[in-house]
Amino acid sequence: MDRAVSTFRMSGISVNFGGITALSDVTLDVTPNQVLGVIGPNGAGKTTLFNVACGFVQPNTGTLTWRDRELKRLRPHQLAGLGIGRTLQGLGLFDRMSVLENVIVGADRHARAGFFSGLFGLRRSANDERALAERAMTVLAELGAAEHADQLPSSLPYPVRKRVSLARALVSEPDLLLLDEPAAGLSGDDMAQLGELIKGLSRRMSVMLVEHHMDLVMSVCDHIVVLDFGKNIASGPPERVKEDPAVLAAYLGDEVEHDNPATTRS
Amino acid sequence: MTAFAQRIWASTLGRHLLLAGLGLVAVALVLENTSAFRNGQFAVMAYMGIAAGGLTVLTGLNGQLSLGHGAFMAIGAYTTALLLDDYESAPPLILVLLAATAVALVIGAGVGVAAARLHGPYIAGATLALAIAVPGIALYFQGTLGGEQGLTVVVPDVPNWFADAAYFITANDVSSSKYVAYIGWFSLIVSYVLLANLSRSRVGRIWRAVRDDDVAAEIAGINLGRARVLAFVVSTACAGLAGAVLALAVRLAAPSGFMLTLSLALLSAVVLGGLGSLLGALIGAALLTFLPQVVTSIGLDAGLTDLQAAELAPLVYGLTTMLVVILAPAGIVGTARAARRRRRSHP
User: Fold this and answer.
1) Given CB atoms, is B344 within the 8 Å cutoff of chain A?
2) What are the pLDDT tens digits along chain A (266 aa)?
3) What 3-state DSSP class applies to B159?
4) What domains are there in chain A, each with its CATH number?
5) Structural domain boundaries, residue B238
6) Number of domains in chain B
7) How does pLDDT run across B186-231, given as a tens digit for each residue?
């Protein structure tokens, strides 16, 4: 399939919540096939940045650009159609629907049958359903969850459910995947598998992830943006960010920062 | 099963049409072998079933609570009464049924757009207001809508082709009440086939996704407002059709027929049967129609006075509802399905 290769650009993003500055003048680019990680201490504004990226929060200033067009007044349901997939912090699975149905919902962007073919049970609807189910099964198989297709999510262990929720985001075949704390609740082995998976995905799409597990971020990301108190205090490849004094300061507490007042910008 | 029957069963539409055909045969057998009085009761069950079917889709599949579906039945019934006001100018019955459905659908769309902006208890409140206000409209426009007395409905004669066909098959003549019961059940079967098709399609899946987790559904690309309005409109269209059958069955559209209790009875039928299940809606409608009769006659046999026996019926219905809600909150069909699932996974 021919894919529109594009850079996702957030520039000059500022967000205020009633006088409190959650983000101030944050700029970042997710270039094609890049894995970009956003890290920072608790309360640094990671989740807000993520919510701006997917339209849940309207920034006070700043613009989002995708496929050379500015995304204005982005509504969350429009993301999928633009080729942007995302996962939720936690799971957000549909509890009373089978794993397969959960994933098919994610493929809705590719559905062709409308209301009337569903109402009258036309062949068009049945064929469409079959095609969607095939797409969903392919992705489930890729993530090693195909054998759970007919089960309810609640009957599965947490790491499997996590993969189902990732499958639901992947089945829409996004060009940009936004992952909100994908490693939350995963143990070492599962996290390592997730890392391999994300690296593999970057061959097909760009990935932006918000995460606080340093090992995962350092091992999978090509580029890292560090936030602290809503500001972008450092960015660059993992090995450089790891050594950055401002980053060390932010993570180790303000003691270091006071000792090195000159190093708070990269 | 033969290969052909298996193929039919494997396709969603084939399965639904097969069940519809069997349902039609069952309906004919029952209506032909029961009295005119029972025929009338089956017509009641049919319109309650149609309205409950629409409501169970809205509440069970999409998670929206409506306390005002009686108002949409009133809209369907008054549309029918206005169209069937005398023998001479009566349009074909099928057009009357479609018109009643369409009017309720259009008004439902208007209400649905407003309701889609509301959540949970607020939708319930808004629809509750509707259930109370709509009968009042009939009182206000006394000239056109007949005020307290309402409008009488002139049920057209049984068409000759229908009477002939029925006689050919059953060797019985078709009384007017049996004709209405047939119309009611035919409407029920058609509407259930369409609702079952929808709920097995992409549309139904979207409704269920929105019900289970609206944020996740939105991220998957689903327009929440559109999904909610669509579910609302589909269910009000059913209520409109149910209202039309009601008008034919009681030959009257009057405000007293559409008090709040009607809306609440519909909701209780849906909860009793099992939310989201059409079979459950039908069982609920049957309980709603026949339980009071059965209880009253049991009461009379047990030596109660007429009044005592009549008062026993709502008591038993209320207790049944409470028992189901406490012991089997998934409703009759939901509980049966869960039990079957458990048996299958732990043989």
Assistant:
1) no
2) 334 568 999 999 999 988 888 999 999 999 999 999 999 888 889 989 999 998 889 999 999 999 888 988 888 899 899 999 999 888 889 999 999 999 999 999 999 889 999 999 898 999 999 999 999 999 999 999 999 999 999 999 999 999 999 999 999 999 999 999 998 888 888 999 999 999 999 999 999 999 888 889 999 999 999 999 899 998 999 999 888 888 888 876 654 444 444 443 43
3) coil
4) 1-83+174-266 (3.40.50.300), 98-168 (no CATH)
5) 3-259
6) 1
7) 999 999 999 999 999 999 999 999 999 999 999 999 999 999 999 9
A255-263 LR contacts (CB < 8 Å, sep 24+): none
**Residue appearing with tokens 């959960």:** A102
Q: Which residues of A touch B201 (CB under 8 A)?
A: 113, 117-119, 121, 125, 129
Which of A78, A93, A105 lies nearest to residue B205, judging by beta carbons?
A: A105
How many Å apart are CA A168 and CA B320, to the nearest integer?
41
Residue B146 included in any domain: yes
Using CA coordinates, name the residue in chain A closest to B276: A96
- CB-neighbour burial class of residue A203 (10 A; exposed 0-12, middle 13-18, buried 19+): exposed
Does residue B291 belong to any structural domain of this protein? no
Find out whether A169 and A105 touch, Cβ atoms under 8 Å: no
Contact check, Cβ <8 Å, B223/A129: no
Q: Which of A81, A85, A253, A224 is nearest to A167 (CA)?
A: A85
* Cα B163 to Cα B142: distance, rounded to the nearest angstrom: 37
Q: Judge: B213–A121 Cβ closer than 8 Å, yes or no.
A: no
A261 DSSP assignment: G
Asked, for residue B124, whether it belongs to a domain, the answer is yes
Q: Do A80 and B16 touch (CB under 8 A)?
A: no
Residue B304 lies in a domain: no
Cβ distance A131 to A187 under 8 Å?
no
Contact B217 A105 (CB under 8 A): yes
